[in-house]
Write a structure and sequence with these properties.
Elements lengths: L2 H4 L20 E6 H15 L3 E2 L1 E2 L1 H5 L3 H10 L4 E4 L2 H11 L4 E4 L8 H6 L3 E4 L2 H14 L3 E6 L11 H5 L9 E7 L12 H15 L5 E2 L3 H4 L9 E2 L22 E13 L4 E2 L5 E2 L4 E6 L14 E4 L2 E6 L7 E4 L13 E5 L5 H8 L3 H7 L5 E5 L2
Parallel strand pairs: 1-19, 2-10, 3-4, 4-5, 5-6, 6-7, 7-8, 8-9
Antiparallel strand pairs: 1-11, 11-14, 11-18, 12-13, 14-17, 15-16, 16-17
Helix pairs in contact: 2-4, 11-12
Bound molecules: pyridoxal-5'-phosphate.
The site of pyridoxal-5'-phosphate (PLP) has 12 residues, from helix 10.
């Protein structure tokens, strides 16, 4: 038994990490940790020397922060980012001590001792947060690590330039500035002039701050070129197979496969009303399959869409229910799809980005919406 298994991580045969058995579940989510590792290697190769962190917020974009972290650690990754202190505490429990975990949204006032106890480092986003962490360092009697985030033009998190300029000379006493960082608002649009403007603003802000390594690029930022790489990149989406270069061929490997079980099949006559509100009527005799998968599993109710079986498209008909969706399977030979069989919702026939496009959203939201009801199977560990 290896460390991962003892900590409740998925084991190599993929039976761990899930609370629902494969037989009991309505849908199966397969997460390819080997593909995540390959994606990490591909990003590292582009970085030519800069380090590469792993962004694990929202439970590793819905795929499991702990198993993803253990896969990345095998590639030598030792810097992780989460969004919230609570996520950091859970990840620290899973990983044990030794790897740097930074909390992107900063520490809520009064939570500094909880962060210290879990060996978590804040991303300091304001002068007030800096003051609180300086005070925590004084009380602890040692220098405490932090990332200092500045706002180079996204207006979301980080110290605005005027606040940076107003910092007292002793503002960083007791703080071990691991990185000065900022975040790009438009990195997935390479021709957007906001990228260069943010880069210039970041350069100006770094000169005002104490000298420290720097970090600017998320997944798409890595593809903007070496100017944006600095000392540390912070990819999330690309690790999970989301295309960091929208409109161009996806340079990453797909990571996720989502399959739903057929609960029942039936024939209906021409004119039959299908699903809630009878929003669809059969235009002729149809063969239907109902799958155990619905909006409660994180699939947008408004998304017109389809499932796939052996390369054949099976359109959704009628409304998406909470726990079920009706498919028109007339295109399949009779008898080829029956109760318990699996159809594909995300996989080789339909990528995360395809699903997002159909739902009018982004791959990030598709992944982070995925349900806790699935059986989760980790492969390629
Ligand atoms: C989410 C996030 C990232 C990762 O972004 P991706 O687009 O998923 O690569 C990096 N930095 C910050 C500050 C973030 O909030």
């Amino acid at each position: 038994m290896n460390d991962d298994t003892r900590r409740g991580f998925p084991d190599a045969d993929g039976t761990g990490g899930s609370t629902v058995s494969e037989a009991a579940a309505g849908a199966i989510l397969t997460i390819d940790l080997g593909a995540i590792r390959e994606n990490y290697r591909r990003l590292e190769a582009r970085l030519a020397g800069a380090r590469c962190a792993g962004v694990l917020k929202a439970d590793g974009y819905g795929l499991g922060a702990a198993p993803v972290a253990s896969a990345l650690i095998k590639e030598g990754c030792d810097i992780f980012f989460v969004a919230l202190l609570g996520e950091g505490i859970a990840l620290r429990k899973a990983l044990g001590s030794g790897h740097d975990i930074f909390v992107l949204n900063g520490l809520p006032p009064g939570s500094e001792s909880e962060a210290l106890a879990a060996e978590l480092h804040p991303v300091v986003n304001s002068a007030a947060q800096l003051g609180a962490w300086r005070e925590a360092a004084r009380a602890a009697g040692r220098r405490l690590p932090a990332v200092v985030q500045v706002d180079s033009g996204m207006s979301r998190l980080g110290m605005p330039p005027a606040d940076v300029a107003a910092l007292a000379t002793d503002a960083f006493d007791g703080i071990d500035i691991r990185f000065v960082m900022s975040h790009l608002a438009c990195a997935d649009e390479p021709s957007n002039p906001a990228n260069e403007q943010q880069w210039l603003a970041f350069e100006r802000l770094r000169k005002v701050l104490p000298a420290a390594p720097a970090s600017l690029a998320n997944s798409s930022g890595i593809f903007l070129g070496p100017l944006y790489h600095y000392d540390l990149a912070r990819p999330g989406a690309a690790l999970y197979g989301i295309n960091p270069t929208p409109g161009e061929t996806n340079p990453m490997l797909p990571v996720v496969r989502l399959q739903a079980k057929v609960a029942q099949t039936r024939w209906v006559e021409e004119g039959a009303g299908i699903g809630y509100g009878h929003t669809y009527h059969a235009s002729g005799p149809l063969r239907l399959a109902t799958i155990s998968f619905g909006y409660a599993d994180g699939w947008h109710r408004r998304a017109a869409s389809a499932a796939w079986f052996e390369g054949v498209r099976l359109p959704f008909v009628g409304r998406i229910s909470m726990d079920s969706i009706i498919l028109d399977i007339s295109a399949l030979p009779a008898g080829s799809l029956g109760e318990g069989d699996l159809v594909e919702l995300i996989g080789p026939s339909q990528s995360v980005d395809d699903v997002a496009g159909q739902a009018g959203t982004i791959g990030y939201e598709v992944l982070t919406s995925l349900s806790a009801r699935f059986h989760r199977r980790y492969v390629g560990a």
